[in-house]
């Protein structure tokens, strides 16, 4: 294979995310239009919570002012500590547990939720120092958190989520112009 063939093959190769993770989506989180979350599920059960490409934070050239993992006076996701092979000590999250709040420079605030039940393994502290990672690389370095579902629930956690095809279909219906009945 010559050099151009190798470069072409590299350009067409699936990304690490596409190769090793299944994308699941939660659309219109808590009834808020377009506040879509993406969950990347690895074959080892680990799930990475990210923003879906349709989330308002990633639209209209927004800029992030702050990211806050302090959920309430007594609850900070930054104080999450896990230990050992079984990841003991991690905060247990329900589907609608808030992970963080993101404020944009236009003062709009968005709460990012876990979308799945499980133990919080880590939050991405890198986005606190470099919020632009969330905008530039939302599926990789700009992830929000990593969650480990209970083993016995790992097959059923996706029941309330949309597959990539279902989500794409929903998004395409959003962008279709609404025709008025005559």
From TrEMBL:
The keyword Nucleus applies. It comes from the Eukaryota. One of its GO terms (biological process) is dendrite morphogenesis. Keywords: Cell projection, Nucleus. One of its GO terms (molecular function) is actin monomer binding. This is Protein Abitram. The keyword Nucleus applies. One of its GO terms (cellular component) is growth cone. InterPro entries: Abitram, GCV_H/Fam206, Single_hybrid_motif.
């Amino acid at each position: 294979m010559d050099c151009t063939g190798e470069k072409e093959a590299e350009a067409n190769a699936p990304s690490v995310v596409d190769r090793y993770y299944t994308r699941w989506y939660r659309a219109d989180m808590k009834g808020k239009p377009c506040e879509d979350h993406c969950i990347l599920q690895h074959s080892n059960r680990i799930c990475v919570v990210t923003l879906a490409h349709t989330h308002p934070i990633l639209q209209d050239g927004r800029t992030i002012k702050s990211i806050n993992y302090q959920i309430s006076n007594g609850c900070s996701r930054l104080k999450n500590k896990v230990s050992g092979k079984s990841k003991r000590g991690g905060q247990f999250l329900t589907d609608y547990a808030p992970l963080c709040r993101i404020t944009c420079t236009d003062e709009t605030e968005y709460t990012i939720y876990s979308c799945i039940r499980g133990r919080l393994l880590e939050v991405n502290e890198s986005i606190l120092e470099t919020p632009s990672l969330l905008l530039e690389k939302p599926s990789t370095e700009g992830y929000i958190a990593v969650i480990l579902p209970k083993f016995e629930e790992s097959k059923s956690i996706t029941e309330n989520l949309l597959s990539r095809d279902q989500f794409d279909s929903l998004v395409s219906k959003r962008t279709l112009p609404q025709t008025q009945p005559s």
